[in-house]
Amino acid sequence: xxxxxxxxxxxxxxxxxxxxxxxxxxxxxxxxxxxxxxxxxxxxxxxxxxxxxxxxxxxxxxxxxxxxxxxxxxxxxxxxxxxxxxxxxxxxxxxxxxxxxxxxxxxxxxxxxxxxxxxxxxxxxxxxxxxxxxxxxxxxxxxxxxxxxxxxxxxxxxxxxxxxxxxxxxxxxxxxxxxxxxxxxxxxxxxxxxxxxxxxxxxxxxxxxxxxxxxxxxxxxxxxxxxxxxxxxxxxxxxxxxxxxxxxxxxxxxxxxxxxxxxxxxxxxxxxxxxxxxxxxxxxxxxxxxxxxxxxxxxxxxxxxxxxxxxxxxxxxxxxxxxxxxxxxxxxxxxxxxxxxxxxxxxxxxxxxxxxxxxxxxxxxxxxxxxxxxxxxxxxxxxxxxxxxxxxxxxxxxxxxxxxxxxxxxxxxxxxxxxxxxxxxxxxxxxxxxxxxxxxxxxxxxxxxxxxxxxxx
Length: 457
Description:
Blueprint: E1 2-9, H1 15-20, H2 25-36, E2 41-48, E3 52-59, H3 62-77, H4 81-85, E4 89-92, H5 94-105, H6 116-131, H7 136-155, H8 158-161, H9 165-173, E5 183-187, H10 191-203, E6 208-212, H11 216-225, E7 229-231, H12 236-242, E8 245-248, H13 259-265, E9 273-277, E10 294-298, H14 300-311, H15 319-370, H16 376-405, H17 411-421
Parallel strand pairs: 5-6, 5-8, 6-7, 8-9, 9-10
Antiparallel strand pairs: 1-3, 1-4, 2-3
Helix pairs in contact: 2-3, 5-7, 5-15, 6-7, 7-15, 9-14, 12-13, 15-16, 15-17, 16-17
């Protein structure tokens, strides 16, 4: 079994395509079920955000799984497989782990270092656990990625390398304090809109702020928190008529404002206006940027480009942090590789323990049949001695094979062990030679490597 990730993001696909591949939560859950239920996939989680759509899976065959998952993504997004293939990225095993760890740290985000991705990964794992598609392998992979992301933020100055999406957008929209807006409109009242409203209120305390939302109650709550004014969607044209800054971030699946609607709302205005579209799919018609009086339309692509240029600047405050985070990711991938390698040998070790337990049980049964006159105490001492001998003989090989497996070419040691003892790890079962008291149960040794566990307790 191996790890596979297939997906597309803002790095490989244009915004228009990302909008087309945006899935509702219900569709994402159905997609996940079909992926995990396919022939070559045993476990899977789906990371579906405004900037990426990715499937992480434990697979038995690379090409078979790749073809199946690609076809399912095409079916669920409604985008042809030929189009998707031009924008997909595919990573396998260690490279798949490296990609996820990079994503978790925010290095692959539109705004470098943004922490929101950790919550999105946590949610993706929770969904996989709820629907039963996130098994032990994928669960451990995502949990490790979350730990790597937290480590990157706590041990480096990664947060300084990038800014929140809202902060980056406002830096573009209002480049100088002198350009502070007199009247701003925030469309939407969700978490991102709330962050935009609070940031505007903090940065520009003199700005008159209007919150427009389909739900008047939510608009009123947010407006009260930022000392602004609430309005319903019917009042949006009036609010737009006098605004010099508009920030929109709703969960709508279609345009909230077309070019014609915006032009009509601004027909009598001569005040220049700047617009910020933080939604995916986008809220604002791109053609609005060409209308008279529109100074600038800031969208996610423009923000990403600005962030990339900032990160490439030699004196960027986060440049050293990015290098530190990269080193953390590389180290964590190596640790994860060793963990998977050690896990891969576990069935072989278990099979060896099973075989030894069966041999001991059979020989003791023969011994007891030939020595029926022995008293119980002597019989117990013989059993104890036999189990200890086998325990000691197998302890060192099972410890060493786990140690050697994590090195280069270590997999061959497990293969050699299977060949030498004619083992089939697929038939490994829990060792239990005694009923009730646990006699013969496999146990972990003090070093965590495991002992044969045949000695009577």
